[in-house]
Amino acid sequence: MSPSHRRIGKPAALASLLGLLCVALIALVAFAWQPLRSFDTVLARSVHHRAHAYDGITQVNRVLSDWVWDPWTLRALCAVVVAGLWLRGARRMAVLLAVTCAFGTLAQQTLKALIGKERPQWQQPLDSAQYAAFPSGHAMTATVTCGLLLWLLRRHGVNGAAWATAVTVAVVSVLGVGLTRIWLGVHWPSDVVGGWLLGTLTVVVAVAAYRRTEVRA
Q1: 1 falls in which pLDDT band (50, 70, 90)?
Q2: Does residue 120 contact residue 104 with C-beta atoms inside 8 Å?
Q3: Terminus-to-terminus CA distance in the chain, angstroms?
Q4: Are 163 and 44 in contact (CB under 8 A)?
Q5: What's the pTM?
Q6: Residues in contact with 113: Cβ distance below 8 Å, sequence separation at least 6, in sequence order
């Protein structure tokens, strides 16, 4: 197998695995599989109880979730990167980022509408959110944005301390935003896991598609 085909094959195999996991989770959520619902309920209630007990931590989670890691903040960051790539002449890559981010938003909203999973309901809510619960838009948007930006940095030869810092920031952001959504009581754990899986699948498929166009070029 040639190097070019190996470069395409690895993302494609990973995409297949992630696709199976996503389909399985979507099916379990859509058909309200009782063990998953029970797990969601027990964990969400436990976390919600602690969130009320630690108001300072809850306030920090609200700032991180509603401002720092808000989907619109991350989309704005992606738009700045897209504009920078376009102005530098890397227009194919700019289009890839723009299309992938737009697809991620469309996919999450479509699934929310089709599945219609209700969000957690509390007597004393800590935050509010719109639309259905599954998948978490915050978790999916953060995964897509951070994944694409890491891929871009790697393609541009970033390594060493700069690469380690970028990976750390990305991992903290992706995991952190998902945990804030559970802490604030606006998502079930399975919503967040679904956002992570679907976001990762979106990035892997986009990278595989880009590599295929490079080989054809």
Answers
A1: very low
A2: no
A3: 19
A4: no
A5: 0.94
A6: 131, 132
